[in-house]
Amino acid sequence: MREYEILGQKIVISHPEEAELASYAIEIVDEKIKLLRDQKPNLSREQTAVLALLQIAGDLVKDRRTMDEYRHELDQRCTSLMTEVASILSRKDSAREQSV
Fold first, then answer.
1. Rounded distance, CA 33 to CA 53, Å?
2. Confidence class of residue 52 from pLDDT cuts 50, 70 and 90?
3. 7: number of CA atoms within 13 Å, CB side?
4. Exposure pattern of 44-69 as b/e (b: 16+ CB <10 Å)?
5. Could you give the angle at the alpha carbon of 58 between the alpha carbons of 57 and 59, nearest 5°?
6. DSSP 8-state class, residue 100
7. How large is the greatest C-alpha to C-alpha distance in the chain, in angstroms?
8. Do the beta carbons of residue 48 and residue 32 sit within 8 Å?
9. Cα(20)–Cα(16) distance, rounded to whole angstroms?
10. CA separation for the pair 2, 12 (Å, rounded)
C-alpha cells in the first residue's frame, strides 16, 4: 500500500501491481500542477486540476498521433520492402527456369 498527495488530497494505492504505474502517473500530474502553479498562481485547486488534466490529455493526443504516423510509415516501408523482396525472388526463380 502506498500513499500519495496531490493538491492536498491523499491518494492510497493498495494494489502493489498498480503502485508502480500510479507512481509514474502521479509524478506526471504533480509536475504539471507545479508548472501551472508557478505560471498561474491565482488559479483555484479545482482550476489547476482541470487545466493539468487538459494539458495531460493534450499531450496524450499528440503522442497518439505521432505513434499513428510512425505506424503508418512503418507499414508503408514494410510493404515496399516485401514487394521488393518478392520481385527479387521472382527474378531469381525466372533465371533458374531459364538456365535449366
1. 9
2. very high
3. 17
4. eeeebbebbeeeeeeeeeeeeeeeee
5. 90
6. -
7. 85
8. no
9. 7
10. 6
| pLDDT on residue 96 | 79
Element (H, E) at 4: strand 2-6
pLDDT, tens digit, for every residue of 25-48?
999 999 999 999 999 999 999 999
Task: Report the alpha-carbon distance of residue 11 to residue 4 in Å, rounded.
Answer: 5
60-87 pLDDT, tens digit each: 999 999 999 999 999 999 999 999 999 9
Q: DSSP H helical segments within 1-100, as ranges? A: 16-39, 45-99
> Which grid cell is 91?
527474378
What pLDDT sits at residue 100?
62
Task: Pull the grid cell for residue 3.
Answer: 500513499
| Residue the block writes with cell 521472382 | 90
Q: Are 51 and 43 in contact (CB under 8 A)?
A: yes
